[in-house]
Amino acid sequence: MQYQVLALDLDGTLTNRDKIITPRTKAALQQAARRGVCIVLASGRPTVGIWPLARELELEKTGGCILSYNGGKVIDCRTGETLVSRAFPPELIEPVCTFSRYWNTVALTYDAGGIVTEHAASPYVQEEARINKIPVREVPDLSGEIRWPIHKLLLTGDPVDMPHVEELMQQEFAGRLSIYRSQPFFIETMPLHVEKAAALELLLRRKGLTAQNLMACGDGWNDLPMIRYAGLGVAMGNAQPPVKAAAAFVTADNDHDGVGLAVERYILQEER
């Protein structure tokens, strides 16, 4: 079997618009896992927001992985072992929070209980809480509140403004942070060189595999590195245009079993 590792973005890819894994996609993934494929749930979400989907797919039994914070952390679902962990530079927390306030975006991060932010009522913060099914805690000063290792700061704001804000942030923190959008209203800010492809490369190396053994499915800007890196990069029908352009194959959208169809075609049929 060529594709022994299957990396899946979650929102807009694995799950449909209701944040549900469709029955056909779930069946295809579980069949692939039974045949020995390592399923990696690769998302910008915090680890706590990915575990429910990992349990639904029974990855703790089949040995899949959770790649959270866009690659800031990778854990083995069967053993609970942390395979990769990259902390956000503490000295850059306050500058990023200050930048966020100046450009009228809302910054957030995560603690053991959920989201931490200065503006809990923001609709974009509430959307992140809905996606991950976690609560929000409001604090007066986010940078002053953080006294624990974090893996990312997420900037949220009006989709109209975010391309310009991302460009300005790329200039401000060039050579110090990895910065990219995951949704039109989200800008991910990560430790330098942290992104999905880099974490997947480390995971493949541990398994004695290469990019040619990796199939990756995604839809957003933050999926571009892994789509380009994978032996087979698959874009969803609802993917951003650059993702489609970079992919070797464009499948159906996330509301019409796009992941399931791709797995059937490139993994299950190949096995037969």
From TrEMBL:
A Pfam family this chain is assigned to: Hydrolase_3
Q: What are the protein's GO molecular function terms? A: magnesium ion binding; phosphatase activity
Judging by the UniProt lineage, the source's domain of life is: Bacteria
UniProt keywords (A-Z) are: Hydrolase
User: Which InterPro entries does its entry note?
Assistant: Cof, HAD-like_sf, HAD-SF_hydro_IIB, HAD_sf
Q: Report the coiled-coil segments.
A: none
Presence of keyword Isomerase: no
Q: Does the keyword Hydrolase belong to this entry?
A: yes
A GO term from the CC aspect: cytosol
Q: Which PANTHER family match?
A: HAD SUPERFAMILY HYDROLASE-LIKE, TYPE 3 (PTHR10000:SF8), PHOSPHOSERINE PHOSPHATASE (PTHR10000)
For this entry, the protein name equals Cof-type HAD-IIB family hydrolase
